[in-house]
Amino acid sequence: MRPLMLMVKRKSLLLESIIWKLERAKDGVRIILRGHAIYHANIVVYSYHYLLDPKIADLVSKELEKTSVVVFDEAHNIDNVCIEALSVTISRRTLDRSHANVESLARTVKNIKQKDSDKLRQEYNRLVQGLRDASVARETDVVLSNPVLPDEILEEAVPGNIRQAEHFVNFMRRFIEYLKTRLRAQHVVQESPPSFLQHIFQQVCIERKPLRFCAERLSSLLYTLELPDVQDYGPLTLIANFATLVSTYSKGFTLIIEPFDDRTPTIPNPILHFSCMDASIAIKPVFDRFQSVCHHIRDIVANRHVSQDS
Question: What confidence tier does 287 reach under pLDDT thresholds 50, 70, 90?
Answer without folding.
Answer: confident
